[in-house]
Design brief:
- The protein has one domain: 434 Repressor (Amino-terminal Domain).
- 75% of the residues lie in helices and 0% in strands.
- It contains four helices and no strands.
- It is elongated, with a radius of gyration of 16 Å.
Length: 88
């Protein structure tokens, strides 16, 4: 069974753009995470190129890793803040 996220490349890229914007993640950061030239990624977002299924899966995995890393960083910051508040 195919994953519906990847059935329509332009829709996938549009949704990805929204997620990046809402999460404050730069296209360059995503490109670096997936070892892709940022200009190639910009072509996808501008509609000049269509990503393959393999590329969309790669972008999806990269976005997941970035979001997971940011979540872990936020947990560490929260933990440190709570410890500092308790010791005050």
């Amino acid at each position: 069974m195919a994953d519906p996220r990847f059935e329509n490349a332009p829709v996938y890229i549009a949704v990805l753009a929204l997620i990046l914007d809402k999460a404050g993640i730069a296209q360059a950061q995503l490109a670096a995470e997936v070892s892709m030239d940022r200009h190639r990624l910009q072509h996808y977002f501008a509609g000049r190129r269509r990503p393959t299924l393999e590329t969309m899966i790669k972008l999806d995995a990269g976005l997941f890793r970035i979001l997971r890393m940011e979540t872990q960083i936020e947990k560490v910051k929260t933990s440190r803040r709570r410890r500092a508040e308790r010791s005050s």
